[in-house]
Design brief:
The complex is a heterodimer of chains A (196) and B (68).
Chain A: H1 17-46, H2 53-56, H3 59-84, H4 88-118, H5 127-154, H6 160-163, H7 165-195
Helix pairs in contact in A: 1-5, 1-7, 3-4, 3-7, 4-5, 5-7
Chain B: H1 3-32, H2 35-61
Helix pairs in contact in B: 1-2
Classes of the chains: A mainly alpha (196), B mainly alpha (68).
């Protein structure tokens, strides 16, 4: 028996299954990051002194990482658009670029963490460093998750293009929605942690 | 919401960040004399302007795509 609404939208929700599923998942993610952002605000408001992020964190590296993530969102949309235009070669190019940019982000983040550890700045050093490592660490794990999913869609998962291209295009769109959410979280994290 | 709509929302948020960061960089230079922040701020404003142009182009190019 074939599963309904994997390609065409369900009449009552107006969404196909995977898109409804990813939005429900992203709603839970909003709650997760929302709780951590709330913790940050409460900790900061309740503290007698709070360091400015720019005094302890590397702004140029974080700026480069922001540009890297924004660019990766562009390449992600391009990969989906390439599939919609039935161009699998361009899809591979753009999806490969998205994964490469995500890896660049993680490497830069690794350098940033290493510099902090060299200076003895561990999560236990202060409340600020604790919330910094918690928020950026959780965000980094989401980037790793995105790399795994996108690599599957670039590699073995792309076999579906031959059997069911419309469904595969939808899968890439759903992965793109997740990727944009992760990038949007960084758009909030960067000013909150580094600039304020 | 489709990927196209979410992408445009993301670009809008990125533009706000870029101009906000630009203002922060200029303020950091004015109040603390950080030349590096001024350079980053100016580059950020330029990047934000490029994103505005990109957003308008994407909106026009992908018109009618992914309504749901």
């Amino acid at each position: 028996m074939e599963i309904p609404y994997t390609v065409e939208p369900r009449p009552d929700t107006g969404l196909y299954n995977a898109k409804l599923g990813i939005w429900l998942f992203l709603a839970s993610e909003v709650m997760l990051f929302g709780a951590l952002f709330s913790s940050y605000v409460l900790l900061r408001v309740g503290a007698t002194t709070w360091p400015h992020g720019y005094e302890h964190l590397n702004i140029p590296l974080a700026t480069v990482n922001t540009v890297v993530l924004i660019t990766s969102s562009v390449t992600m949309v391009m990969s989906w658009a390439s599939l919609a235009m039935k161009n699998i070669r361009r899809y591979r190019l753009y999806m490969g670029a998205t994964i490469a940019l995500a890896c660049v982000f993680l490497v830069i983040k690794g350098f940033e963490y290493a510099a902090k550890f060299e200076h003895g700045l561990y999560p236990s050093a202060s409340t600020f460093m604790a919330i910094y490592f918690t928020l950026t660490g959780l965000h980094g794990l989401h980037i790793v998750g995105g790399v795994i999913v996108n690599s599957y869609l670039l590699g073995p998962g792309s076999r579906m293009w031959k059997t069911d291209p419309a469904r595969f295009t939808n899968r890439v769109e759903v992965a793109g929605l997740y990727w944009h959410f992760v990038d949007l979280v960084w758009i909030f994290l960067f000013p909150v942690l580094y600039l304020l | 919401m489709s990927l196209k709509a979410f992408h445009l929302l993301f670009v809008a948020a990125s533009v706000i960040l870029a101009f906000g960061f630009g203002a922060w960089g200029i303020d950091a230079y004015a109040s603390r004399g950080e030349g590096g922040s001024l350079v980053l701020g100016i580059l950020s404003i330029l990047f934000g302007s490029a994103l505005v142009v990109y957003g308008i182009r994407v909106r026009t190019k992908l018109k009618g795509w992914g309504a749901a």
